[in-house]
Amino acid sequence: MSVASVTAFxxxxxxxxxxxxxxxxxxxxxxxxxxxxVAPGQIAKTLSLRLDDEVVLLVARGDxxxxxxxxxxRFGQKARMLGLNEVEHETGHPVGGxxxxxxxxxxxxxxxxxxxxxxxVFPAAGAPDATVRMTPDRLAVLTQAEWVDVAxxxxxxx
Length: 158
Fold this sequence. Notes:
Elements: H1 2-13, E1 20-21, H2 29-36, E2 43-51, E3 54-61, H3 68-75, H4 84-91, E4 108-112, E5 122-123, E6 130-131, H5 136-143, E7 146-148, H6 154-157
Parallel strand pairs: 2-5, 3-4, 4-7
Antiparallel strand pairs: 1-6, 2-3
């Protein structure tokens, strides 16, 4: 499914966006930033989280860390990441390729305001060697994401 479902998503919703494939892995923020020649913050990492009985996705800048206090204030509970063995089942994408596009089933998506520090960001595209490029606002529009502020402040992230 994965890259094919992301391709189908963009064919329908944003045919001007092309999936870029790389000879090396882009599965981690560091690897993706190196392969693309961009700052780690420009990599839009997608976290798979559990809110009560619901799976949600949170997209944040690559070098951001969740601020536990902010997260709990916003969502009313501690952040709980999905287990590695649950991620592909819930999203349709393998670890390293998780993105908010072409999902196995509809999931709520949240974009952290930390993404807005960049004009262009690079989320994964369904495989550990695939990305797309877009503005943070377009990412949010395409995924019907809600903007939240749950990452540590940039000064703390360094």
